[in-house]
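assembly run, all chains below
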Amino acid sequence: MLALDKNPPSIREFRENKKDEFLRSLARDNAQLLLNEIWKLPTERVDEVIVAKLPEPTTRLPREKPPPKPRPPTKWEEFAKLKGIQKKKKTNLMWDDVHKEWKRRWGYKRAKDDTKEWLLEVPETADPNEDQFAKRNKAKKERVAKNELNRLRNIARAQKIKVPGIGLAPTGQQSKSELEKAVHVAKLSTASVGKFQDRLPKEKAPRNTGKKRKFQPLIGDFSTEKQKQLDILKIMDGKKPRLDINKAVNKQMREEDMESDSKKKALPAVSSRAKTRAILHLWAGGALRKARSSGLLAGTQRLRSQRGGEEGLFLALGPGASLPLVRDPAHGSPSLLHRILSKPRRTCQCQGATNGAFQPD
Amino acid sequence: MRPLTEDETKTMFEKLSKYIGENIKLLVDRPDGTYCFRLHNDRVYYVSEKILKLATNISRDKLVSVGTCFGKFTKTQKFRLHITALDFLAPYAKFKVWVKPGAEQSFLYGNHVMKSGLGRITENTAQYQGVVVYSMADVPLGFGVAAKTTQECRRVDPMSIVVFHQADIGEFIRSEDTLT
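ok done. output:
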């Protein structure tokens, strides 16, 4: 049993009087009211005890979800409200004079069913060859379609979607994908389903045409797979031009560089002729004195070969065509003394360039 | 896991040929057994037939890696080489770059190779040619793209970039969780 006192307790009295007393009196009054209500119920005597028969217990729960919103009025409902048109309830059944019985007003087995007529009168204005039955069927179908369209428009209006017009009106600005789709459809709309349609040079194949990708089996014929890959490689090789222009130009540039380098080397050698001559004396023991210019050339060649030996270590490791990047000193002089003098300076430069932070003072 | 389609094979071979040229043939047609390329999770794996057959026992979602990962296809169907492919690029590389010992660490931390760190370079390297980067002791360190031709390399100043970094063996540690 549960009794609820919905009246709010007066806060003023609660504060003024003694709080316990106030609460006790309130509880007593409420208990009295509850007992009064119980005494109003039918009672009976069971073993000399008066027992009240309580009503069936009910608990009214609040609903879980808010009540649904009323359906937005359709276009007709709006119009009817505006004009003050009210719905008139018609009886479901009506008397059919032909069959002499009560029949439904509409629907299956309705009274005055005009689809069941076996004969139709051709109106005077109509074309005598026109099939009146077909015309009626078509009219019915159109009415159904129109009703369906109106229903959809009502739904669209209720959800505040743009109400679609009738038919496929062209949009003002078609997007790229829409245009692509249109082109694709137009291409397929030939007698041969687009089999002989030309493609534009950079036109992509349409995507999502419903064709599924098919892959080769994971473990299939390995030899054919290899052969296919080799064929691809062959085609790729064939596509490469025989003459790589970049490479050719580079080669030409390199040759020119070599030429200018050798010219540079030759020029200062003449100026430091005395030193070179001394070395040549040491080397050839004066045998080459007679042909000074030619001997000079031979000397430079020998020097070069010496340098090659020094770097042959790397050459042996790398491919044949690799170029030592450590260049000759800018002077390009073939003199040995100069070379020896400039060597420590060169290493210093390298250190500075690579790891300046750790360079000792 | 599945074999590559023809288009995928072509894109991958085109990328590989930038580094090893026509030596791809040696990868496809090996005398020591049948090796093939397989696609799994957009990644291309170079697997021997034997291991491939063993790998079929493992379901697709549980299989992390099989064979050697060569790289992966991006969402736009381009192919990116991974550093794991270096083992097969290095022996067949057509164009090589050697870096000086001082610049090795910088390259291994993912930086480009400067002229100052350039030890040697293969002659006739064209611009944007794929190159394999070696240390002076001929240890392959990674690969990249030549930013300058060999000719230009001689003239540029020491701080200009000579090789663009693409992958280096430092990635084995740096991106350990994404390399498979």
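Chain A has a mean pLDDT of 75.

The beta strands of chain A are 43-46, 49-52, 93-96, 101-104, 322-324.

not gonna interpret more than that til we talk
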